[in-house]
Amino acid sequence: MSERKSDPDREDSERAFFGRRKGHKLRQHQAELIDHLLPRLALAIDRAAPADAREIFAPAADDLRLEIGFGGGEHLAAEAQTFATTGFIGCEPYVNGMAKILAQIEAAEIGNIRLFAGDAAELLAWLPEASLSRIDLIHPDPWPKRRHWKRRFVQDRTIAAMARVLKAGGEFRFVCDIDDYCAWTLSHLSRSQDFVWLAERADDFRLPWAGYTMTRYGRKATREGRKAAYLRFRRV
Ligand SMILES: C[S@@+](CC[C@H](N)C(=O)[O-])C[C@H]1O[C@@H](n2cnc3c(N)ncnc32)[C@H](O)[C@@H]1O
Predict the structure, then answer these.
(1) ipTM higher than 0.95?
(2) What's the whole-model pTM score?
(3) Which residue has the CA at smallest separation from atom 27 of ligand 1?
(4) 108 CA to middle of ligand 1, Å?
(5) Arithmetic mean of pLDDT, 109-134
(6) For S-adenosyl-L-methionine, which residues are the binding ones (predicted)?
Protein backbone atom coordinates (compact mmCIF):
# COMPACT_ATOMS: atom_id res chain seq x y z
CA MET A 1 0.00 0.00 0.00
CA SER A 2 1.57 3.30 -1.01
CA GLU A 3 1.84 6.22 1.33
CA ARG A 4 0.21 9.37 -0.06
CA LYS A 5 2.65 12.26 -0.25
CA SER A 6 1.21 15.53 0.94
CA ASP A 7 0.78 17.99 -1.90
CA PRO A 8 1.18 21.61 -0.81
CA ASP A 9 -0.63 22.78 -3.94
CA ARG A 10 -3.86 21.10 -2.85
CA GLU A 11 -5.95 23.04 -0.38
CA ASP A 12 -7.37 21.34 2.75
CA SER A 13 -10.84 22.04 1.41
CA GLU A 14 -10.21 19.77 -1.62
CA ARG A 15 -9.21 16.71 0.38
CA ALA A 16 -11.06 14.37 2.66
CA PHE A 17 -8.31 12.19 4.15
CA PHE A 18 -5.64 13.50 6.49
CA GLY A 19 -5.12 10.61 8.91
CA ARG A 20 -2.50 7.91 9.24
CA ARG A 21 -2.29 5.08 6.75
CA LYS A 22 0.14 3.01 8.80
CA GLY A 23 0.55 2.31 12.52
CA HIS A 24 2.48 -0.39 14.34
CA LYS A 25 4.06 -3.18 12.31
CA LEU A 26 1.60 -5.87 11.25
CA ARG A 27 1.92 -9.35 12.73
CA GLN A 28 2.79 -12.05 10.21
CA HIS A 29 -0.75 -13.34 9.77
CA GLN A 30 -2.12 -9.81 9.46
CA ALA A 31 0.42 -9.11 6.71
CA GLU A 32 -0.63 -12.31 4.95
CA LEU A 33 -4.28 -11.22 5.10
CA ILE A 34 -3.35 -7.85 3.56
CA ASP A 35 -1.36 -9.61 0.82
CA HIS A 36 -3.77 -12.44 0.01
CA LEU A 37 -7.31 -11.80 1.31
CA LEU A 38 -7.55 -8.04 0.72
CA PRO A 39 -6.95 -8.29 -3.06
CA ARG A 40 -9.91 -10.72 -3.28
CA LEU A 41 -12.24 -8.35 -1.43
CA ALA A 42 -10.95 -4.96 -2.59
CA LEU A 43 -13.07 -2.87 -4.94
CA ALA A 44 -11.23 -2.01 -8.15
CA ILE A 45 -12.18 1.63 -8.43
CA ASP A 46 -9.84 2.13 -11.39
CA ARG A 47 -12.52 0.27 -13.42
CA ALA A 48 -16.10 1.43 -13.93
CA ALA A 49 -18.56 0.34 -11.26
CA PRO A 50 -21.28 -2.10 -12.37
CA ALA A 51 -24.41 -0.16 -13.44
CA ASP A 52 -26.29 -2.11 -10.78
CA ALA A 53 -23.86 -1.79 -7.86
CA ARG A 54 -25.50 -4.70 -6.03
CA GLU A 55 -23.61 -6.84 -8.59
CA ILE A 56 -20.41 -5.99 -6.77
CA PHE A 57 -21.48 -9.14 -4.94
CA ALA A 58 -22.16 -12.50 -6.60
CA PRO A 59 -24.96 -13.39 -6.28
CA ALA A 60 -26.12 -9.77 -6.25
CA ALA A 61 -26.84 -8.38 -2.79
CA ASP A 62 -30.40 -7.31 -1.91
CA ASP A 63 -29.18 -3.92 -0.84
CA LEU A 64 -25.90 -2.03 -0.38
CA ARG A 65 -24.53 -0.15 2.62
CA LEU A 66 -21.28 1.71 3.28
CA GLU A 67 -19.32 2.32 6.49
CA ILE A 68 -16.74 5.10 6.27
CA GLY A 69 -13.66 4.87 8.52
CA PHE A 70 -14.60 1.59 10.19
CA GLY A 71 -11.46 1.55 12.38
CA GLY A 72 -11.28 -1.83 14.13
CA GLY A 73 -14.35 -3.01 12.18
CA GLU A 74 -16.46 -4.07 15.21
CA HIS A 75 -19.59 -2.33 13.92
CA LEU A 76 -19.09 -3.33 10.28
CA ALA A 77 -18.53 -7.01 11.08
CA ALA A 78 -21.56 -7.16 13.39
CA GLU A 79 -23.86 -5.46 10.86
CA ALA A 80 -22.68 -7.72 8.05
CA GLN A 81 -23.42 -10.81 10.12
CA THR A 82 -26.85 -9.51 11.19
CA PHE A 83 -27.91 -8.53 7.66
CA ALA A 84 -26.58 -11.43 5.65
CA THR A 85 -28.27 -10.63 2.32
CA THR A 86 -27.14 -6.98 2.38
CA GLY A 87 -23.79 -6.16 0.79
CA PHE A 88 -21.49 -3.99 2.92
CA ILE A 89 -18.66 -1.82 1.68
CA GLY A 90 -16.11 -0.88 4.30
CA CYS A 91 -13.78 2.02 3.65
CA GLU A 92 -10.66 2.53 5.78
CA PRO A 93 -7.27 3.91 4.72
CA TYR A 94 -5.54 2.78 7.94
CA VAL A 95 -3.82 -0.51 7.16
CA ASN A 96 -3.98 -1.78 10.77
CA GLY A 97 -7.78 -1.32 10.71
CA MET A 98 -7.92 -3.16 7.40
CA ALA A 99 -5.95 -6.05 8.92
CA LYS A 100 -8.44 -6.21 11.82
CA ILE A 101 -11.53 -6.46 9.62
CA LEU A 102 -9.81 -9.07 7.44
CA ALA A 103 -9.15 -11.18 10.54
CA GLN A 104 -12.84 -10.95 11.51
CA ILE A 105 -13.96 -11.79 7.96
CA GLU A 106 -11.70 -14.83 7.96
CA ALA A 107 -12.62 -16.03 11.47
CA ALA A 108 -16.39 -15.67 11.04
CA GLU A 109 -16.40 -16.51 7.30
CA ILE A 110 -18.24 -13.29 6.48
CA GLY A 111 -19.08 -13.25 2.76
CA ASN A 112 -20.93 -9.96 2.36
CA ILE A 113 -18.18 -7.36 2.89
CA ARG A 114 -16.07 -5.65 0.20
CA LEU A 115 -13.32 -3.22 1.09
CA PHE A 116 -11.70 -0.04 -0.07
CA ALA A 117 -8.38 0.93 1.53
CA GLY A 118 -8.51 4.62 0.71
CA ASP A 119 -10.32 7.92 1.00
CA ALA A 120 -14.11 7.59 1.13
CA ALA A 121 -14.44 10.67 -1.11
CA GLU A 122 -12.85 8.66 -3.95
CA LEU A 123 -15.14 5.72 -3.29
CA LEU A 124 -18.24 7.94 -3.23
CA ALA A 125 -17.21 9.42 -6.60
CA TRP A 126 -16.90 5.90 -8.05
CA LEU A 127 -20.25 4.53 -6.84
CA PRO A 128 -23.28 4.85 -9.15
CA GLU A 129 -26.03 7.31 -8.33
CA ALA A 130 -28.71 6.05 -5.91
CA SER A 131 -26.85 2.81 -5.20
CA LEU A 132 -26.76 2.75 -1.38
CA SER A 133 -29.46 2.41 1.24
CA ARG A 134 -27.28 3.66 4.11
CA ILE A 135 -23.97 5.30 4.93
CA ASP A 136 -22.52 5.13 8.47
CA LEU A 137 -19.83 7.51 9.74
CA ILE A 138 -18.97 6.51 13.30
CA HIS A 139 -16.65 8.60 15.47
CA PRO A 140 -14.93 10.34 12.56
CA ASP A 141 -11.62 12.09 13.23
CA PRO A 142 -12.81 15.25 15.08
CA TRP A 143 -10.18 17.82 14.01
CA PRO A 144 -11.04 20.04 17.01
CA LYS A 145 -8.83 23.04 16.12
CA ARG A 146 -10.60 25.71 14.11
CA ARG A 147 -7.84 25.85 11.51
CA HIS A 148 -8.37 22.10 10.88
CA TRP A 149 -12.17 22.12 10.57
CA LYS A 150 -11.79 21.95 6.79
CA ARG A 151 -10.26 18.50 7.31
CA ARG A 152 -13.43 17.09 8.83
CA PHE A 153 -15.08 14.49 6.63
CA VAL A 154 -18.46 16.23 6.79
CA GLN A 155 -18.29 19.14 4.33
CA ASP A 156 -20.80 20.52 1.83
CA ARG A 157 -19.04 18.63 -0.97
CA THR A 158 -19.01 15.25 0.84
CA ILE A 159 -22.67 15.74 1.82
CA ALA A 160 -23.48 16.29 -1.87
CA ALA A 161 -21.43 13.20 -2.76
CA MET A 162 -23.32 11.12 -0.19
CA ALA A 163 -26.66 12.49 -1.42
CA ARG A 164 -25.77 11.42 -4.96
CA VAL A 165 -25.10 7.79 -4.04
CA LEU A 166 -27.92 7.34 -1.51
CA LYS A 167 -31.32 6.16 -2.69
CA ALA A 168 -34.34 8.29 -1.84
CA GLY A 169 -35.34 7.17 1.65
CA GLY A 170 -31.79 5.99 2.36
CA GLU A 171 -30.00 7.16 5.49
CA PHE A 172 -26.79 8.83 6.53
CA ARG A 173 -26.01 7.92 10.16
CA PHE A 174 -23.43 9.85 12.14
CA VAL A 175 -22.09 9.03 15.61
CA CYS A 176 -19.79 11.44 17.41
CA ASP A 177 -18.75 12.32 20.97
CA ILE A 178 -17.40 15.79 20.15
CA ASP A 179 -20.23 18.31 20.68
CA ASP A 180 -18.75 20.82 18.31
CA TYR A 181 -18.55 18.29 15.45
CA CYS A 182 -22.17 17.23 16.11
CA ALA A 183 -23.28 20.86 15.87
CA TRP A 184 -21.15 21.26 12.72
CA THR A 185 -22.78 18.20 11.14
CA LEU A 186 -26.28 19.31 12.07
CA SER A 187 -25.73 22.77 10.61
CA HIS A 188 -24.16 21.44 7.40
CA LEU A 189 -26.86 18.81 6.87
CA SER A 190 -29.64 21.28 7.67
CA ARG A 191 -28.54 23.62 4.89
CA SER A 192 -28.52 20.73 2.41
CA GLN A 193 -31.78 20.34 0.50
CA ASP A 194 -31.12 16.59 0.25
CA PHE A 195 -31.44 15.44 3.87
CA VAL A 196 -33.83 15.69 6.78
CA TRP A 197 -32.83 15.02 10.38
CA LEU A 198 -35.01 12.25 11.79
CA ALA A 199 -34.95 13.10 15.51
CA GLU A 200 -38.32 13.85 17.09
CA ARG A 201 -37.27 13.74 20.74
CA ALA A 202 -33.98 14.02 22.63
CA ASP A 203 -33.62 10.27 23.14
CA ASP A 204 -33.60 9.84 19.36
CA PHE A 205 -30.10 11.33 19.30
CA ARG A 206 -28.98 10.68 22.89
CA LEU A 207 -29.34 6.93 22.62
CA PRO A 208 -27.92 4.53 20.05
CA TRP A 209 -30.43 3.00 17.66
CA ALA A 210 -31.54 -0.61 18.20
CA GLY A 211 -28.85 -3.15 17.49
CA TYR A 212 -26.00 -0.62 17.52
CA THR A 213 -22.57 -2.16 18.10
CA MET A 214 -20.28 0.02 20.21
CA THR A 215 -16.87 0.70 18.65
CA ARG A 216 -13.42 1.20 20.15
CA TYR A 217 -13.71 4.98 19.91
CA GLY A 218 -17.19 4.83 21.43
CA ARG A 219 -15.83 2.93 24.43
CA LYS A 220 -12.94 5.39 24.73
CA ALA A 221 -15.41 8.32 24.79
CA THR A 222 -17.45 6.64 27.54
CA ARG A 223 -14.31 5.95 29.60
CA GLU A 224 -13.31 9.59 29.27
CA GLY A 225 -16.78 10.82 30.29
CA ARG A 226 -18.02 12.04 26.88
CA LYS A 227 -21.52 11.16 25.66
CA ALA A 228 -22.00 10.44 22.00
CA ALA A 229 -24.82 11.73 19.80
CA TYR A 230 -26.44 9.40 17.29
CA LEU A 231 -27.72 11.43 14.33
CA ARG A 232 -29.85 9.95 11.56
CA PHE A 233 -30.61 11.83 8.36
CA ARG A 234 -32.94 10.61 5.62
CA ARG A 235 -32.18 11.26 1.95
CA VAL A 236 -35.28 13.02 0.61
C1 LIG B 1 -11.45 8.15 15.17
S2 LIG B 1 -11.31 6.78 14.12
C3 LIG B 1 -12.84 5.89 14.43
C4 LIG B 1 -12.79 4.47 14.00
C5 LIG B 1 -14.09 3.69 14.23
N6 LIG B 1 -15.17 4.16 13.41
C7 LIG B 1 -14.48 3.68 15.69
O8 LIG B 1 -15.53 4.26 16.02
O9 LIG B 1 -13.76 3.07 16.51
C10 LIG B 1 -11.64 7.50 12.52
C11 LIG B 1 -11.29 6.59 11.37
O12 LIG B 1 -11.66 7.21 10.14
C13 LIG B 1 -10.68 6.93 9.17
N14 LIG B 1 -10.75 7.98 8.15
C15 LIG B 1 -10.33 9.26 8.25
N16 LIG B 1 -10.55 9.93 7.12
C17 LIG B 1 -11.13 9.05 6.25
C18 LIG B 1 -11.57 9.14 4.91
N19 LIG B 1 -11.45 10.27 4.21
N20 LIG B 1 -12.10 8.04 4.32
C21 LIG B 1 -12.23 6.89 5.03
N22 LIG B 1 -11.82 6.75 6.30
C23 LIG B 1 -11.27 7.81 6.91
C24 LIG B 1 -9.38 6.91 9.94
O25 LIG B 1 -8.37 6.16 9.29
C26 LIG B 1 -9.80 6.28 11.26
O27 LIG B 1 -9.62 4.89 11.27
Answers:
(1) yes
(2) 0.95
(3) 71
(4) 23
(5) 98
(6) 67, 92, 119, 141
